[in-house]
Amino acid sequence: PVRLTQLSHGGGCGCKIAPAKLQEILKGVQLDFGSPDLLVGASTSDDAAVYRLSPDLALILTTDFFMPIVDDPRDFGRVAAANAISDVYAMGGRPLLALSVLGMPVNKLPAAVISEIVAGGADVCRQAGIPLAGGCGAARAGVGCAAGLAPGALSSGGRGEGGEGRGRECVVIGTMTQLNTVGTALGQDPRVHAITDVTGFGLLGHLLEVCRGSGLAARVAAGAVPVMAPALALAQRGVFPGAVERNWDSYGAAVAVEQGVESWRRDLLVDPQTSGGLLLAVEPGAAEELLAAVRAAGFSQAAAVGRLEA
Predict the structure, then answer these.
(1) In whole angstroms, what is the distance from residue 182 CA to residue 31 CA?
(2) pLDDT above 50 (res 151)
(3) Residue 112 CB-density burial (10 A; 0-12 exposed, 13-18 middle, 19+ buried)
(4) For residue 150, what pLDDT is reported?
(5) Residue 170's Cα: distance from chain center in Å?
(6) Angle between the 164-176 and 73-90 helix axes, to the nearest 10 degrees?
(7) Which of 50, 67, 125, 233 could make an SS bond with 40 (beta carbons 3.0 to 4.6 A apart)?
(8) pLDDT digits (tens, 9 = 90+) for 47-84
(9) For the residues 202-215, what does the mean pLDDT come to?
């Protein structure tokens, strides 16, 4: 059988351009030409762009693209689609449709394998209740999504106030393919001040974007951050993807780690997440109620992990 992970230099969101390198690339490039209807653009490092169509309707636009993180083609397609659609939920929106983006080494992969990747993406789109409406392919998986929401309730990241081995793999794939559907309702709740999804820059990297956008600092209780058992076992042995070092080099200067925090636990906080969960900033008095609602929606490991400070 074909092992997809052998065809890539890195897996999932861990293969993305480092935050510091991305800033260097975009420095001096004018991306926003002053459109009054562009409500959220590149300047805020948000999860997606938001464009106003009318006073009470806006369009969320996002795209995502990454290399295989699992060998099973259908699972890869499912993870890629769930990861891309998550950006819409992180903006408090409702997905409408998806376009597939394929870059495949057609000289190495049989057509049947590529078909399974596309079918996996279609599976998740069906689960989200949206059509996979087309896309673009190049001989060399990701999904671009469009969604609508009410801008009056817009939640923007800049507003913060088989055997054992197969069993572990199933746990991880199940997490990566769980749709963050709860984000649509959370985005309409006035007690939720910011939402972002945690992906390639790790928990601390995406939290740092919220801090920079809001002008606040954050204090994280490292021991309160939920960790899957397979990841915990690997972390304690010092087994991490190379992107952990990349992330830390990019923004570690902005992070102060207190004495007593184990190095492996610090590295978990910058570990790149593929199709990770949502990170919320909420009113302190509503935290317990919102946390209970999120858990009831199927996210049993949801936890309060810290606070924002002036």
Answers:
(1) 31
(2) no
(3) exposed
(4) 36
(5) 19
(6) 40
(7) 50
(8) 888 999 888 888 898 888 778 888 888 998 999 899 88
(9) 92
